[in-house]
Amino acid sequence: VYQPKGTIPVTEVRDDPKLDPDFPQVDPKEKFPETSFPAVHFVPGQFPHETAATVGEYTLQGPQLDTLKTVKGQYAHFAFDPDAKQWYGLKHSVFALDLKQQTATELPLGMDVPEFSHACGLAFDTKRKRVVVATLGGEGFLYAYSVEDQKWSVLASLNNLDLNNLCYSPHHDAYFSMALDYDGNSHTIPALIRLNAAGAVTSRDRLVGPFVDGMFGDRHRGGGVQLLPLGEQLVLISSSSGYDPNDGSRSDPATFIFHVDPKLGFARLSWKSTSNKAKLKSPAVNDGDSSRTEPSERRTPVRVSTLPSVPNTTSPSAEPKTAVKKDGVFELRFHGPYFPGNTRIGQSNGSWGEFTLTGPDLNTLRPMPKGIVRMAFDAEKKQFYGLDHQNVFQVDLVKQTTTELEIGTDAPQLSWPAGITFDSKRRRLLVLGSGLIYQCDVDKEHKWSVLREVHRHWAHGRGLVYEPQSDALFLLSQSFGGQMDYTLTRLDNEGAAVKTKTLAGPEFAGLFGRSPADSNSQLIAVDGKLILLAYPSERGEAQTPARSSMFLYDPKTDRVQMTWEK
Questions:
Q1: Could you tell me where in the chain the CATH 2.120.10.30 domains are found?
Q2: Which residues contact residue 475 at a Cβ distance below 8 angstroms, ignoring those fewer than 6 apart?
Q3: Does this model's pTM top 0.85?
Q4: Cα–Cα distance for residue pair 84/102, rounded to 1 Å
Q5: 532-542, pLDDT tens digit by residue?
Q6: Residue 336: beta bridge partners?
Q7: CATH number of 37-287
């Protein structure tokens, strides 16, 4: 045992609330609305499989014990239809629960959809009167059960997005889920994921609040994480039995209730039921600074489109919309890809929908098939084409399917595809690869050839688009040296360079990474102008949230301006 001689001087005392053994502290009751909502109350047993669930009314200060009703059986997730006063439970299948008779009626999947694999979330969509289930198996899927038709369908693929729970918010007409990110130091940070009615991921933002390691992710420890709608806000309830299956150790059960503002991404702790012995590790707090400031001072709201719209019920398109007059000014409307925050390679979760220069109209987004990161559209035949990071495909957005267009032996093998566009005048599909521009005659058995070998400085391509008004191609590229330089080059219809525009400024820094896989960027032509959508992919263990941007380029004036950022 080391015994130092003399005394050890204390030169500094940290007044940090995170060091308080009572952390996290509950905010004053006066800061929260007086309201109630249906929720699940988990009562832990000695082991996880002995956990009992009761359902009833909650306030933001905890369960109303006299309203709780017993649920017979073990269910991992619950959902509630407020109009029919009907509870649903999820385990290997979904069951309609009769709390008075203590019976459960299974909602059979039938033969039209595959069986659930690792179901992980359950919600009730009050607008469409349907039960929605999220699964983890394979690439993950959203299933929907129509209460009226009593029939299941597959709503969308989750493209390897792992969800822990699911809820439907009538105010936002959207689904929400919570997932866990990592900060690079093995600490978890809760992230709020939003999906529209079609199942397209529209945002993924890390939550700010008094969180600590061990609060979430206890699906296998006899508890659960519930996300519930509450007007414009959400309620996040996390319960844990305290049992750790890894080493068999046990700590006191803990339950936390958070009032969440999805717009600001800020959570306040409204209630907790735990003791100081609970197995929680406070160093991983995602609380910004240690001061208890207002949400508006702690996080800038995400700038997204606020266009009035209705859910997309028509076939997806890609044709530029006619300019719409709004407040006396004509605004551009167009279709393009959208990728939510924290885009990772292999987990793109891309969607296709309508945009203005102020961002995407979230209600119009439809999921793109798994792996597709760039698309082009043949307006005459209403046919989509798409790229992943290796190949070219025909894409069916409605059926969520792809058919590979093999290049064959008539052209060199495609390497690092970075751009795709459709030349409507010559009826050809154009693809930018590493060092080459490929062309495919879509009306002649999809025969491929090389249009042109690109200039050596364009080898690191990042986008390609055909602009019909000028009958020209535009190629986005970057070169490496002392610093990354970005250029936009105008080509004639044979691929010969006509004019080059350098894209300079701090707003372009880090947008495209070092390979086409590092950024899901796309050029779009609309009304004689070009739109550049840039979605950098996060890299590394820390999963740093990426910055998405939109730029408008007018070839006539040679002017570039940023119009949207998230």
A1: 370-565
A2: 419, 432, 437, 454, 458, 461, 463, 464, 488, 489, 491
A3: no
A4: 17
A5: 998 876 554 44
A6: 353
A7: 2.120.10
